[in-house]
Structure formats: structure tokens, C-alpha cells
Design a protein that fits this description.
The complex is a heterodimer of chains A (about 170) and B (about 425). The N and C termini of chain A lie far apart (about 70 Å). Chain A has helices spanning about 1-35, 35-40, 155-165; strands spanning about 45-50, 55-60, 65-70, 85, 90-95, 105-110, 115, 120-125, 130, 145, 150. Chain A has about 170 residues and is α+β, with helices and mostly antiparallel strands. Helices cover about 65% and strands about 0% of the residues of chain B. Chain B is built from 16 helices and two strands. The longest helix of chain B is centred in the C-terminal third of the chain and has 34 residues, at about 385-415. Classes of the chains: A alpha+beta (about 170), B mainly alpha (about 425). The interface between A and B is medium-sized, with 21 and 26 residues.
Chain lengths: ~170, ~425
């Protein structure tokens, strides 16, 4: 009996040590697959919007995705929950991937709308889907405002207000 | 230590140390295969040979391939294709082999379903085989990324994006798998590791397991006949080869297989030398560009049916979005073949043409898979979308109905007796 419990104890102790080692290895392996710190810190894109022209589409790259920045001209009405006021002007800030299958729509300045060449989806200047297969408006990336500078990747109060409404 | 006496021959020397005589008997000359089989029973050997081709051609490609987002495309399309002597040959063998291996896997799989080779003790053969199918799918997908062309990039993008549909952890999981917020260098290098090391190791292990799983229930035969392998092999060894229902794996079974293999290799090398372009999508000769989606993205032919099951659901049903329905159907389609031994409730092991209800089910399933494959490549617009939805729905209904159909069949056959 004495022997049995000693063996049992050694067995359990061995099991416990092996389990701790196993879990620690799994954590290490999971973390090796994590995005690197350099990748995480490159996840922010800063854009100065003061020099942009009205009704002319600016495309910046954020996390490998195109982001549309469109400054509204005088005759364009801002949409609640979709248009961003930066300084004195209104802007559309949207991820430039069609919500249908991820193509990049083009901007037609004269008609003030986006048109996707892949399957004919159309969006208004504020990114709302108006025609064709897209299931929802263009996504709005998380952003923060810092004067006339737009920081993509960070969630500022303006962004939180917009998503709360949507 | 055991006592070794001086060996009289080289064979004896090895036999003393490694037991090679017994090993050869167990693995080859006294491994019994039924006699009543046809050419469809040669697919396993064809697959083993094809896998060897893929490994060997892969080794040569590995000598010049560079797993780096800036260098990968040129290392394949310039260095291997134009500079390396016979580099084109190894690439074509690898690309055509990857495509044809799926053709043979499907024939192998549907042979198993047609003849009922997955039940009454053969469940583990089937499961290990489906495990191999999944591993080969992962191997094909990870390998397709490596040339870093437009199709490589966007296939990687779309397929990794699928994991985003998993509730709660989806978005983080996609970033974790990619190693970046989008498909990038980190994605390429980790999938390179999977393609050249981890998955091939797993495949080799699964092949060994698949072969091992065959040993106890034995290979099925054309008539689904059960007989005593010990008794039949005794007859064969006693010289009554004519009345014995079995043949040894080596040399009798393999000699037939090698004939089928010979014919297959003529077809295979015809493709490699004269018709390789079917395995090399023209869009993939444009370098990967994360800011330019090709107008139309589709997978290689062997994934089209499950891709169409994913795509077929384009509208909301009962508050669940089309995208989520597609993901559920896709998950179902990829898991359902695994449990086929338990969906088939009929105890009959017979070729499908001798089973009153199952034969209709089998050919309907094959026809549906063909429709899915055909429409998986077409743009999902207009009537195509509805055909895709219909075929996708049919697939689900067929598999949900299988237990009832086979149960009814079992009842009918019993009634006759």
C-alpha cells in the first residue's frame, strides 16, 4: 500500500510537470505565430488632410488595404454617421473594398459616386450602396483625429460616436 | 545479448539483424488481396506513386525557390522556369501532379462509396482516407500560395478570410493565421513552412496509418463478399491458386497495378509535356498585388464544388445572413464525408448498382458535384447564382436524406428475404 501511494504520487508529480511544460510550449508556439511587434506598430497610417482637393479621391494604404479619403465639395451634403468633419470640411473616410467580393471601386467625380467594375455595384459619395450586389455600405476604418491629421487604426471619440449611431 | 551464429549469406546476415524474411512475408508475399477486383483497386498505388513524384519534384524546386514576398515570384517564374536546367520540367510535374492527385483521390473516394468499402469494420480505413484528403487539400492550398502571383495572393486572402466567420474570435484569428493584418510576407513564410515540412510529415504519417488500417478488415472486393482470408490464403500457399479467392500483394497484385500505372503514366506525362497549361492559371503570371483584385477569383478545379457550396447562399434566410449560411454549408460539406460510414444505415456491402435505393442516391450525388464544379468557376450572377443555390441545397438535402434512404433500403431487402 505504501508503495502504491508513492508510485501514485510520483506518477501525478510527473504528470503535473509534463502538463506545465506542455502548456508552456503551446503558449510559446501560439506566440511565435502572433503578428510581430513591427507589424503591429505598422498598423497605423497617418494622413494630413489639409492639402486635399474637394471631390477628388485620395487613396492611402492602411494595413494593406486601400482607404478612400474624399473631401466634400460645396454642393455635397454630409451624412449623419458616415461623414467626418475634419477642420472646416466634411470628408468620407472608408475602406475602399467593395463589400460584395472585395474589389476596389473607382470614383466618378462628375456623377459623385463609386462604381465597382467587377460586378457593377454602385455607392454614393458617402459610401452607401445604391445599386447592384453589395450587401452593405463601405466599411469605415477605426480612426482618430489630431487637428487636421487623420490617424487610421486608432479609435478616437469621433469614430466611437459614428459606430454607436450605426 | 542474443547469440548470433555466423551467417552463410548476405540475406541471412540481414535476416539475423532485421528479420527481413518475415518482414517481406508480412508486407508483401503473404499480404493477401482479394482476387475479384478491377482496375479501380489500383488507385492506391497510383496515389503513392504520385505523392512520390510530388516529393521528388518538390525537392528540386526547393533548391531555387525563395520564400520571400519580394523574391518568390521571380524565383519561380524567372530562375526556375528560365535559368535552371529542366526547372520547367520539375515545376510542371509538381503543378500537374498536384492537380491529377486530386483527380485520383476523387476516383479512389467514389470507388469506396460505390462499393460500400467504408462499413462493417472498414470505418478506420475510410476515416484515415478522409484525413488524407483534408491534409492534401491543406497541402494544395499552401503550395498554391508560394509562386506569389495574383491568384496565389487572392486565393490566400479569400480562404484565410473564411476563418473570420467563426463567432467571437474570427477577426483576431484571421490576423493570427496571416501574421499580419493582410496577406503579407509573414503569411508566405509560414505557409511555406507548412507546405514543405509540417503537412508533408503529417501526410506521410497518415499514409502509413491508412495502410495499417487496411490490414485487419482487409481490402474490399467487387462483390462486397466476405470470406475467411486465413482459409483462402492456406489454399493459395498449398498450390490451389485457382480456387483460392486471394492473391499475394507481391508479386501478383502489384503486377496488375503496375500495368494500370503504366497506362496512367502515359496520360500523366502527356499532360506534363503537352497540356500543362490547365494547371497554370494565366492570372497567376501577374505578380501578387494587394491593391488590385483580379476581376474574377476562383480556386483550382478540385475545390470548385465546395467553393460553390460556400458561394451558393446569397440571400438571408430566417435572419441569418447569406455569408453565414454559406459558411455553415461549407463546414457541413467538408465534414460530412467523414461520417458517411454512419450515415449509411443499410448493412449491405454491395456495389451501388445492386442496391435498390442507394444507386439513385450515388449517381444523384455525383451529378450534383459535377453541377457544383461547373458553376463554381462561373461568375455568380443572374441565373448562375440560382443554379448554384439549388445545387448547394441539393447537396445538403442528399446527405441529410442518406440515413433515411438507406434505412428504407435495409427494410426493403429484409422484406424480400
Amino acid at each position: 500500500m505504501m508503495d502504491e501511494s508513492r508510485r501514485g504520487f510520483i506518477g501525478k508529480a510527473f504528470g503535473a510537470v509534463a502538463a506545465v511544460g506542455g502548456i508552456a510550449s503551446l503558449i510559446a508556439m501560439k506566440k511565435t505565430w502572433d503578428p510581430l511587434p513591427s507589424v503591429m506598430s505598422a498598423g497605423f497610417t497617418t494622413v494630413d488632410v489639409s492639402g486635399l482637393e474637394a471631390n477628388k479621391l485620395e487613396i492611402v494604404v492602411w494595413r494593406g488595404k486601400p482607404v478612400f479619403i474624399l473631401k466634400y465639395s460645396e454642393d455635397m451634403k454630409p451624412t449623419d454617421g458616415r461623414s467626418v468633419k475634419i477642420g472646416d470640411y466634411y470628408f468620407s473616410v472608408m475602406i475602399g473594398l467593395c463589400t460584395h467580393l472585395g474589389c476596389i471601386p473607382g470614383y466618378e467625380g462628375d456623377k459623385k459616386m463609386f462604381k465597382c467594375a467587377c460586378h457593377g455595384g454602385e455607392y454614393s459619395a458617402d459610401g452607401v450602396n445604391t445599386f447592384g450586389p453589395p450587401p452593405r455600405p463601405l466599411d469605415i476604418p477605426p480612426f482618430k483625429l489630431d487637428g487636421v491629421t487623420l490617424v487610421l487604426g486608432d479609435e478616437g471619440p469621433e469614430y466611437k460616436k459614428m459606430t454607436a449611431k450605426a | 545479448m542474443a547469440e548470433f551464429k555466423k551467417a552463410d549469406s548476405m540475406l541471412e546476415w540481414f535476416d539475423q539483424r532485421l528479420g527481413v524474411v518475415n518482414f517481406a512475408k508480412v508486407m508483401m508475399t503473404e499480404y493477401w488481396i482479394p482476387k475479384n477486383i478491377n482496375f479501380l483497386w489500383a488507385m492506391g498505388v497510383l496515389l503513392t506513386v504520385l505523392f512520390t513524384f510530388l516529393v521528388v519534384s518538390g525537392i528540386f524546386l526547393l533548391m531555387y525557390y525563395k520564400p520571400d514576398a519580394n523574391m518568390a515570384f521571380d524565383s519561380v517564374n524567372y530562375t526556375i522556369m528560365q535559368e535552371v536546367a529542366y526547372g520547367w520540367l520539375f515545376r510542371h510535374i509538381h503543378a500537374v501532379g498536384a492537380s491529377v492527385v486530386f483527380l485520383i483521390i476523387y476516383i479512389h473516394m467514389f470507388t469506396g462509396i460505390y462499393y460500400g468499402s467504408y462499413k462493417k469494420g472498414r470505418e478506420m480505413i475510410w476515416i484515415s482516407g478522409m484525413l488524407l484528403f483534408m491534409l492534401f487539400s491543406a497541402e494544395g492550398f499552401s503550395g498554391y500560395m508560394l509562386p506569389w502571383g495574383q491568384m496565389s495572393y487572392w486565393a490566400a486572402y479569400v480562404i484565410t478570410e473564411i476563418f473570420g466567420g467563426i463567432p467571437f474570435i474570427g477577426d483576431d484569428l484571421v490576423v493570427w493565421i496571416r501574421g499580419n493584418f493582410y496577406v503579407a510576407d509573414a503569411t508566405l513564410t509560414r505557409f511555406f513552412m507548412l507546405h514543405v515540412l509540417l503537412i508533408p510529415l503529417a501526410i506521410i504519417g497518415a499514409i502509413v496509418f491508412h495502410f495499417y488500417a487496411l490490414r485487419f478488415p482487409h481490402v474490399n472486393n467487387e462483390h462486397g463478399e466476405f470470406f475467411d482470408f486465413d482459409e483462402e490464403s492456406k489454399k493459395y500457399l498449398a498450390g490451389d491458386k485457382k480456387h483460392s479467392k486471394v492473391i499475394p500483394f507481391w508479386p501478383v497484385f502489384l503486377s496488375k497495378d503496375v500495368f494500370v500505372l503504366g497506362i496512367f503514366l502515359i496520360f500523366f506525362f502527356y499532360l506534363v509535356f503537352f497540356h500543362y497549361s490547365f494547371a497554370m492559371d494565366p492570372i497567376n503570371f501577374d505578380k501578387a498585388d494587394g491593391l488590385k483584385t483580379p476581376a474574377h477569383i476562383y480556386p483550382e478545379w478540385y475545390f470548385l464544388w465546395s467553393y460553390e457550396v460556400l458561394r451558393g447562399w446569397f440571400f438571408e434566410i430566417a435572419g441569418i445572413s447569406g455569408k453565414d449560411l454559406g459558411l455553415m454549408a461549407f463546414g457541413f460539406a467538408n465534414a460530412i464525408f467523414l461520417v458517411i460510414p454512419w450515415l449509411d444505415r443499410s448493412p449491405i456491402v454491395k456495389p451501388a448498382n445492386q442496391r435498390p435505393y442507394f444507386k439513385y442516391w450515388f449517381w444523384l450525388m455525383i451529378a450534383d458535384l459535377m453541377v457544383l464544379t461547373e458553376f463554381g468557376k462561373l461568375p455568380p450572377t443572374g441565373p448562375n447564382a440560382w443554379v448554384g443555390f439549388g445545387a448547394s441545397l441539393t447537396f445538403l438535402v442528399l446527405f441529410i436524406a442518406l440515413p433515411f434512404i438507406t434505412k428504407a433500403e435495409a427494410g426493403k431487402v429484409k422484406g424480400k428475404k
